[in-house]
Design goal:
This protein is of the alpha+beta class. It has four helices and 16 strands. A hairpin with a 7-residue loop joins strand 15 and strand 16.
C-alpha cells in the first residue's frame, strides 16, 4: 500500500477509466458523481477512513463513476493483493468497508430516482468551519452520549441500534450505539450527520421508521433521505414520534478556514 496527496478539485479517476486500485481516505473528503443526461449526479460524499473504487478493483470493469477531491485529500492506494490481505487478516475492516459500500449503493439508487435534486457542484470556496455538538435530550439517549455532548471531529457520525443476540456485532460501524428492545424504534443503520459544502446535514440511512428532524420525518420505510440542519439547535427523534431516543444537534460556525477536512 502507498499514499498520495490530491489537490482540491483534482479528479482522482473518471467514469469509464480502467480501475486497478481502490483508495482509503486518510484525511479530507471525496465526492463521487456520475454523468447523466440531466447533468452530473452526486452519488456520495465520502469522509476519512472510507474506501472507494473497490468495485472496479474486484470486478475488473471500468470505473462506474468519477471521484473528485473536496479540498486537499490524503489517500492510501490499495491493490487487489492488499484487499485480499485485508479480507484475510482484518475482518472488522472488511465488514466496515462492505457496510459503507452497501450504504452508498442504497443512496445511489435513491438519488438516481430524483437526479435534479443532487447536481454535482464545484468544490466549495474557503469558509468558516462548521462545528456540530450532539446532546442527549432524553434518558435513553444519555445512555449512548454523555450529558456534556459529543463534538465529533470526523464525519460522517453514524448512529444505529446495538445488535441483539441473533445479530452479528462485527457488522456494526456506528459511532452512536443505541440500546433498544422490541418493538424496535431504532434500526441497525439509522442516521448519520455529515458536513458538505460548509453545511451540516442529517441523513436517514434507510431506517424502517425514519428520523424526525425539527418536526419533519426524514426517510423511513427503508428509504434513504437527507435534510440540511439549521444553524443553532435542531431537534432529532430517532424513530417515530413516541421514540424515547431524542437528541439536540447544535450546529455552529467556527472562525477558521475550511480546508476541506472534516
Amino acid at each position: 500500500m502507498n499514499e498520495c496527496v490530491v489537490l482540491p478539485g483534482e479528479i482522482i479517476f473518471r467514469e469509464g477509466e480502467p480501475g486497478g486500485e481502490a483508495y482509503v481516505i486518510q484525511s479530507g473528503r471525496v465526492e463521487i458523481f456520475k454523468d447523466s443526461a440531466n447533468g452530473p449526479i452526486v452519488l456520495a460524499n465520502l469522509e476519512e477512513s472510507e474506501m472507494f473504487g473497490e468495485m472496479s478493483l474486484i470486478d475488473e470493469q471500468p470505473r462506474s463513476a468519477t471521484a473528485r477531491a473536496i479540498g486537499e485529500v490524503e489517500l492510501r492506494k490499495i491493490t487487489l493483493d492488499d484487499f485480499v490481505d485485508i479480507l484475510d487478516s482484518q475482518p472488522e475492516d472488511t465488514f466496515r468497508y462492505l457496510r459503507s459500500l452497501y450504504e452508498r449503493i442504497r443512496t445511489m439508487n435513491a438519488r438516481l430516482d430524483k437526479p435534479t435534486d443532487h447536481r454535482a457542484k464545484e468544490p466549495p470556496r474557503a469558509s468558516a468551519r462548521t462545528a456540530v455538538l450532539i446532546l442527549p435530550s432524553s434518558p435513553a439517549a444519555s445512555q449512548a452520549v454523555p450529558a456534556g455532548g459529543m463534538a465529533p471531529r470526523r464525519f460522517p457520525v453514524r448512529a444505529g441500534r446495538m445488535p441483539n443476540s441473533s445479530e452479528a456485532e462485527e457488522l456494526d460501524i456506528n459511532d452512536i450505539r443505541l440500546t433498544d428492545s422490541e418493538p424496535f424504534n431504532v434500526s441497525r443503520d439509522h442516521f448519520s450527520v455529515c458536513i458538505k459544502g460548509g453545511r451540516a446535514y442529517l441523513k436517514d440511512r434507510g431506517s424502517y421508521l425514519g428520523t424526525i428532524v425539527n418536526g419533519v420525518t426524514v426517510g423511513g420505510d427503508r428509504t434513504v433521505a437527507e435534510t440540511a440542519l439549521n444553524l443553532g439547535e435542531n431537534e432529532v427523534i430517532v424513530g417515530g414520534q413516541h421514540s424515547p431516543f431524542r437528541f439536540t444537534v447544535v450546529v455552529s460556525h467556527e472562525q477558521s478556514v475550511d480546508d476541506g477536512r472534516p
